[in-house]
Amino acid sequence: MDIKKIYMDADALLHGHFKLSSGNHSEYYLQSAKVLEDPKTAKLLADALAKEIQVSGIEIDTVCAPALGGLIAGFALATALDKRSIFAERVGGEMTIRRGFEIRPGEKVLICEDIITTGGSALEAAKVVEEMGGEVVAFAALANRGFCHRENSDIERKPNCKLPTDKPFFALADFAFEMYTPEECPLCKAGSEAVKPGSRGN
Ligand code: ZN
How many angstroms separate the alpha carbon of residue 183 from the centre of ligand 1? Predict the structure, then answer.
């Protein structure tokens, strides 16, 4: 399966000259929600990710997704794995699990995101699961931004990856494109101007 082509076809991987929320510039931008707007694509991706997780032999009771980004991916993955689906959400900036979701002692939980960049939200959700008595057994995302090491990839972990090193991270592809400070951006040097993704109301 050509994940990059699926993202490109869905206009989820934009090519141009972008100003990211971090202030850095990039030639690419991932609009991860776009790839999931077609439920058939969401199912295709979740099925492929589920297969990779099943092949690993890891045992899972529940998929927990940090809202908002992970919601659709988490639900689709739980459907493909035929497991329970719950989510964590931020309340006043703090990650919590509410809505009556319970976690029984020792429940094996996989944390699922749409894209793992540094894994910050995923790690916060994992901490909440553990505080509630669950056991976080793995992390998963449709795509890896290239800072963390996923199973079956040569891409090495970078210092800014926040995921724990003792738990597997499953994803379908690496999107390890370069980021530049505005001063060193080759696109700026070539005379083009960076645009903010979403500046046209999307
Ligand atoms: Zn630039």
Answer: 8
Cα(187) to centroid(ligand 1), Å: 5
Residues 6 or more apart whose Cβ sits within 8 Å of residue 27:
15, 16, 17, 18, 177, 178, 187
Ligand 1 center from residue 20 Cα (angstroms)? 10
Task: Tell me the residue range of the domain where 134 lies.
Answer: 38-177
Let me know if residue 76 belongs to a domain: yes
Q: Which two tokens stand for residue 99?
A: 């809505």
Q: The CATH number of the domain where 107 resides is what? A: 3.40.50.2020
- Ligand 1 midpoint to CA 23 (Å): 10
Going by the DSSP 8-state scheme, the letter that residue 149 receives in this structure is: P
Identify which has the larger pLDDT, 177 or 51.
51
* Number of compact structural domains in the chain: 1
Query: Using one digit for the tens of pLDDT, what is the confidence trace for 7-47?
Result: 999 999 999 999 987 788 999 998 888 999 999 999 999 99
Provide the whole-model pTM: 0.91
Ligand 1 centre distance from Cα of residue 21 (Å)? 13
